[in-house]
Design a protein that fits this description.
18 helices; globular; mainly alpha; about 425 residues
Amino acid sequence: MISASLVFLATLTMVIVQPRGLQIGTSAIIGAVVALVLGIVSFSDVVEVSSIVWDATLAFIGIIIMSMVLDEIGFFEWCAIKMAKLSNGRGHLMFVYALLLGAFVSALFANDGAALILTPILLAKMRILQLNLKTIIAFLLAGGFISDSASLPFVFSNLTNIVTANYFNIGFLDYTLNMIVPFILSVIVSIVVLWLVLRKDIPKEVDVSLLKNPDDVLKSKPLFYASWVFLALLLCAYFVGDAYDLPISVFALGGALIFLGVASYLKVARAWLTIKTAPWQVVWFSIGLYIVVYGLKNAGLTDYLASILVSLADKRDLLAVVGTGFISAFLSAVMNNMPTIMIMDISLANIGNEAMIYANIVGCNLGPKMTPFGSLATLLWLHVLAQKGVKISFAEYSKFGLIVTPPVLLIVLLTLI
């Protein structure tokens, strides 16, 4: 257990610190190679991990490619400006609309998509609106939180959702039916709690006349309008694919490549450049970190967790669900939600409690918001902000996350009982 833990901690430290600009995927692969060399994991473990995460990582790449093409069209910028204009300059209403937009993007384009695509757009618009730094940070913190708390409704809304749905053979329709109510409540409660915490930093009035007309940012209006139809058809395709047990990546990646092809034909996007700049490091991050985590499983961590979860399952549903959710949340906050979801899934495998499986997802999606390194989405979000000249300290982020996350997490978990 000691050697497996040390390799995991060293790998996670490299992912977070990124020494000498070392990218997250490269760090994870280095950790995986070390684990393999030391005998912490075997080649058969590598094959097993790859079989678990391949669908999730390919689906994620597809979602990001789709997001990148839509961004090229001006889709997200149009949405951001439209949201601001609809508020009629009322700051608090703009705050609510911004969170609803974040929830929409997170649900359809995954939490990481919201962090990578929407954050720089919102930041640019807030600077055009001449908002002060405290207000900008308030909007950004709220947007960062909603990107994870709203990543519940569909299997593709979060990598953790895909991994768990595949691991337990949960169909797309079944998953959505079980998580739609927690998603709606999570969005509502998140907005209320975020407003209560940040309301003093939200201005009463904002001069939205400084923004362009939404249609002026579109590179291709026909493709923009067609994209709404395409997204609706793609969502329907997920449900059809569910009936035939097709992998979610078939539609996520396949749909993205089709849309990229159309955009390239219309000369709105360049296919090769989009594929080249897609976040391929996330693929190596997912595979590498999961291999490292599998070493913890081999060392007995999952057996220990399973014993705790079994004792919870023997109690009332309330304790089982809330306990599972908070264990997942705590582990996600201290060791990242990607390894946590795998460890918890393995630990829950033989318990047979569906509510605890969904509680694990909720905990792994919301719990990471308590620390800056809790999720890949937050790491990407902070990296994007740092590149744009906005730095949020560890203490500032953690203080905010520890205040906001527990009440939202508790209320959402109660919907699973």
